[in-house]
Amino acid sequence: MNHAALRWAAPLVPAFAIYFTPSSLAADARHLLAIFTGTIIALIARPVPMGASVVLAMTLLVLTNTLTPARALAGFASPTTWMIFSAFLFARAVTSTGFGPRIAYVLIDRIGHSPLTLGYAVAATNLVLAPFIPSDTGRGGGIVFPVARSLAQALGDLPKTSAYLILVGYLSTYTTSGMFLTSMAANPIMAEIARKSHGLDVTFLTWAIAAIVPGVLTLAIGPLIILRATPPESQDIKAARAMAADELKKLGNLNPRELRLVIILLGVMAGWITSPWHGLHNAFVALGGLCALVISEVVTWEEMLGEKRAWDALLWFGPILMMTDELAKAGLFSVLSQSVVGVTGGMPWQVTFFALCAGYLYIHYAFASMTSQATALYAGFLGAGIAAGAPPMMIAIVLAAFSSLNAGITHYGTGSATVFFGAGFVTQGQWWRVGFVLSLMILAVWLGIGPLWWKLVGVWP
Hints:
Shape: globular
Strand content: under 5%
Number of domains: 1
Number of helices: 24
Mean pLDDT: 86
Largest sheet: none
Structural class: mainly alpha
Order of helices and strands: HHHHHHHHHHHHHHHHHHHHHHHH
């Protein structure tokens, strides 16, 4: 996607944001909105790295006396910031030990008996890794794509077979990003917005329980749709299974380092799931896991220092969280919600709920980042849905999940999209057609079957 126009327009956006902001907001809030809006445009257009844009915005907030230094730096004191930072470092441990690829090859060896089940093995790899790797680019582009690409090569690089594996790998990447609190960088931001703006406690367990059924159904139905759109040239996948077996032989038996990693990851997962009972914030469960990784020599401190994505996330995540918090305090999201309710007023909440969720999904045609859309629009859409009468926890989780599920409609919807699309096996037109059909399936599953599950588990009271 060409963002050249956005790069030229970005300096004008703050002025327009101030001009069109309701005059009921205080001057500081209007200035904050202007800088925040400019930051979102910068995250989309990427004139400089994301971290640089966000740190610049934080600095401008202080230089313009919009916020005090203490308030501008408050995002770094948030446990949510350290939660996502820790998750990136877990990703480093999973990849550096070779445990991630091992999972993929074990699943291929065990369940890969046809092209369809080979796709399911790729999807299952994403599902297993998602709770511990909060980067769709790191998980999908760094682990799942190389595996899918290797499978395609083993099968002779046949065009339709390769396209099928690439599309399934991408589908499972963005689907699993929406299934766990820790599987996408912006997920904790949205959980924090829901908590501070509406008092909703979206925990790891709440999110996982709500998303597991519609998420697994998406992973089950999606490969069938892709298989029909790009039927593999051959049903013979013996070469792919042989390749997986050969890779497992190279990796050897589970070594002590990987075994310690598994024990620690299971302990961290148990801590996240039981947090409503023991009361310890998920961030400190994760930090405890990081300490265990270093003490047990699963990873070295130098390796952690070398994980650039974690430190980059720390730098941009804190200021983004701070700005969304300050905008909520200023009442901006309430104003936006009322504006949306004014348009949808009088409709049954079910109609408004569907319209908001579908609109939130398809508006991603205009975004090249899941994080930028989530930080820009989630709070307003959530407030509008709640004001219209939609069950608060249900719409909070659906919109948060759709902040990842929306990435499938284009070849530029998130970082991992460029990796999968760049393989060259799927044309842009084919990618968009399959993505649109999959989006209809997602709407049917999440907004059709999902509410029945949410009613059963109490997400929809």
